[in-house]
Amino acid sequence: MRSIIKVVFLSVIAMCLFLPSALADNSVTRIDGKNRYAVAVNAAKKSWTTSSTVVLVGKDAYADALSAVPFAYQKNAPVLFTNSTSLSTDTKKGLQSLKTKNVIILGGTKSVSGKVTTQLKSMGISVKRISGKNRYDLAANIAKQMKSSSTAVVANGFAYADAVAIAPYAAKQGYPILLTNDKGLRSETSAVMKSRGVKNTIVIGGESSVNKSAYAQLPSPGRIGGANRYEVAANIVKKYNMSTSTTYISNGFAYADAASGASIAAKQGKAFIFTNEKTLPKATRQIIGSKKITSFSILGGTSTVTNTVVSQLKNPVVGKKVFIDPGHGAHDSGAVGYGLYEKNLNLDVAKRLNTKLNNAGALTTMSRTSDTFDSLQTRVSKGASANADIFISVHANSNDNSSANGTETYYDKTYASANSLKLAQNIQPKMVSALGTRDRGVKTAGFYVIKYSKMPSVLLETGFVSSPVDSNILKSATYKDRLASGISSGVSGYFR
Ligand SMILES: [Zn+2]
């Protein structure tokens, strides 16, 4: 009896521990604010209850903010922003609630005016300013105020996204961020590297940001590039294996939100990645998928990171690689009935599914996108070279007896048997409820594409083109769209 109670008790514990996380969507929170000042203050409050020192940067002086994060990190200070002409109200309130005693302004009086200094002093705050003749000089002067480091980061002073993306890592390591431009290495930068005894350089951005000649003049340089800012940020996370237990994400074009994000990501030792406003870029999906990131904190309001992106981040299919195989094609029409050609129907459904999954945040590959023919072997090898997480083959059924009807899903037991079954069990009921067809259930069969695909794989028989009932449903664009949505949500359910 006692052991039964123990077993029951342990099972309940186990269910409590595993069920919610196993069935949950990804976690997404947002650090919002009515403007960039408020976003920065709210971000600061996530990491600091009080902060005696704050680093203050002009609202449009993005170059000044680039080098701010590693410096602020050493001062255990958040980075806040202000209007250049007068201290922004939200920032003022933030300084009060953080009980700030010292403000270090980065940049000249053009970006943060003397009036702001006066206002700060009248609040009983002591003010220090680090300025420079230009952005390169400012970055060098900030570096001089940091603890010495034999490694420095060099980024283009006009490509803020690159510098912001490396900031959390650079901060953690105590590396200053120095700037240059696309014309070549700046003298301010090389001088400070010499005087500070820098022996290694991490160059951020491609050759269009830091060119070959600048690169060649740097001490022991190594480059982290990328086709765009999303890829640069993703490559940084990958290269330095940064903690993704919670990953900060901001719009790659909203520099103030990005700098705020980098600042708290640095403080918390977390990874930091970029999105664009309306959809997750490919490189961002890829890093989410490869690092299996399931918890995100967004910096900025819905105007910079829309709720569409939130939905994608929440969806467990985000970053997952789905291979979609529309059965048959070209001379191989598949089943034919009631004016339906299976090859066309399969392609139509597969294309809709492709769109739905892409909108949901997945990375998709199709074996064909037009009326072409691939052998079964080719389909399998395409799925393998896509390194897909799952393989879905889309088909329709046929029978000599026109009364045969309904929807069924096949899996094979050769490879990934349990997960193939799980995938089938997630998709099948969603197809049936989308189409209102007869539920023929989940079945096993050694169809070539699911037998030889090594990843979890299923073959969907959406309905019978030989059935007057099913074929009517499958002719309807509305039903095909519902079907695609159903399959897509079944796929999400599988990854949930
Ligand atoms: Zn078929």
Automatic annotation (TrEMBL):
InterPro entries associated with the record: Bact_Sporulation_Assoc (IPR051922), Cell_wall-bd_2 (IPR007253), MurNAc-LAA_cat (IPR002508)
Q: Show the stretches that span the lipid bilayer.
A: none
GO molecular function annotation: N-acetylmuramoyl-L-alanine amidase activity
Q: What superkingdom heads the lineage?
A: Bacteria
Tell me which CDD domains the record gives. Answer: MurNAc-LAA
A Pfam family for this UniProt protein? CW_binding_2
Q: Which UniProt keywords apply?
A: Signal
Q: Please report the stretch or stretches of sequence annotated as the MurNAc-LAA domain.
A: 380-492
Q: For this UniProt entry, which residues form the secretion signal?
A: 1-24
Q: Which SMART domains match?
A: Ami_3 (SM00646)
Where is the organism placed in the taxonomic lineage, from the top? Bacteria, Bacillati, Bacillota, Bacilli, Bacillales
According to UniProt, the name of this protein is: N-acetylmuramoyl-L-alanine amidase
Q: Tell me, what is an example of a GO biological process annotation in this record?
A: peptidoglycan catabolic process
Which PANTHER family does the entry mention?
Answer: N-ACETYLMURAMOYL-L-ALANINE AMIDASE LYTC, N-ACETYLMURAMOYL-L-ALANINE AMIDASE-RELATED
